[in-house]
Amino acid sequence: ACFSLGVMVTMNQRLEADTLLLVADEFGYKIEFSDADLEDSETEEIVDSEEDLVPRAPIVTVMGHVDHGKTSLLDYVRKTNVIAGESGGITQHIGAYNVKLENGQRITFLDTPGHEAFTAMRARGAQITDIAIIVIAADDDVMPQTKEAISHAQAAGVPMIIALNKVDKPNANPDNIRQQLSGMNILVEEWGGNVQSQEISAKFGNNVDLLLEKVLLQAELLELKANPDRNAQGVVIEASLDKGRGYVSTMLVQSGTLRVGDYVLAGKNHGKVKAMLDERGKNLAEAGPSIPVTILGLDGAPTAGDKFKVYEDESEAKSIANKREQLQRELSIRTKKHTTLEELGRRI
Ligand code: GDP
Ligand code: MG
Predict the structure, then answer these.
(1) Largest CA distance in the chain
(2) Is the beta carbon of 174 within 6 A of some atom in ligand 1?
(3) Is the CB–ligand 1 distance for residue 72 below 6 Å?
(4) What is the pLDDT of residues 321-341, one digit of tens each?
(5) Atom of ligand 1 nearest to the CA of 68
(6) What ligand has the least distance to the C-alpha of 69?
(7) Side-chain half-sphere of 233: how many Cα atoms within 13 Å?
(8) pLDDT value, residue 1
(9) What is the annotated localization of this protein (predicted)?
(10) Which of 8, 15, 105, 208 is most buried, by the most CB atoms less than 10 A from its CB?
């Protein structure tokens, strides 16, 4: 049937959706498609019983219009809230970091441009942010990227906390921002709404502690929990090739505990975790839920947003990696000579 459609294939080859529909139709079958990604154990649903779940740190993304102060805020948090008793701040840029506040509670910040993180992750169906901080400069207006950030958060169902930044500036007018937000149906708490907000100066660090308290308050409402007592899985934040160390991948553990020696499959890459480092470059033996780590040992650089998972069985991980590699190769061949249903129909 394929040959008669002008599709030259062997029996081991996968067919694209359009061809499948036509071929099945030839034989009187109707095809129902399920999600293309749901083909292996990678996407198997995690089912944890309630008693195995323990609280985990919130994972926070900072978004907002350019120059409104995202980097300043992330830098301030990174520099000031270093783990108690730990000397030196965070030196490495690893795309995510975890801070411990004075009260001992922890927050994980994604240190990647929020918009990109959101779109890349969502494109791969990985939801990794629990809370979004929307930074708005109080000496400016609600700008296009502010609106975009807000709609990203709303579409993902991620609660927002509004940081009204640059209030140290003489021309700052936070009420103007509150007003504009209310025009978008976003009513901040001071105005009787349910969206938390905090005036800050990211540059000087004023009230950033209060902002973080609100993050923790929001986190408490979300009752974020995970089971640390299982094989780790999570998402790739970024990866690159390092001259001396080979492939270096920053992973965010979402569930379970990742350990040195674990066999990891991430996207179409795999390998044994040779070493694991935190954002200070310190060696770790293990990392639990909500903890970002840099790992060494993969055979390549997975893509940001790829899911990762630990496999007991090394050969299973390898065979899934190979399958994905092959699938991707086939897909890229297909997109090169893409056939539409219409074109196929014409050929018949
Ligand atoms: P981003 O593009 O959102 O990452 O913004 P940046 O953090 O790079 O900040 C843009 C500019 O605004 C920089 O010159 C910062 O020093 C300045 N800035 C950021 N936050 C504040 C603040 O709270 N007060 C003042 N006065 N300037 C700020
Ligand atoms: Mg920036």
Answers:
(1) 75
(2) no
(3) yes
(4) 888 877 777 666 555 554 555
(5) 3
(6) 1
(7) 18
(8) 85
(9) Cytoplasm
(10) 208
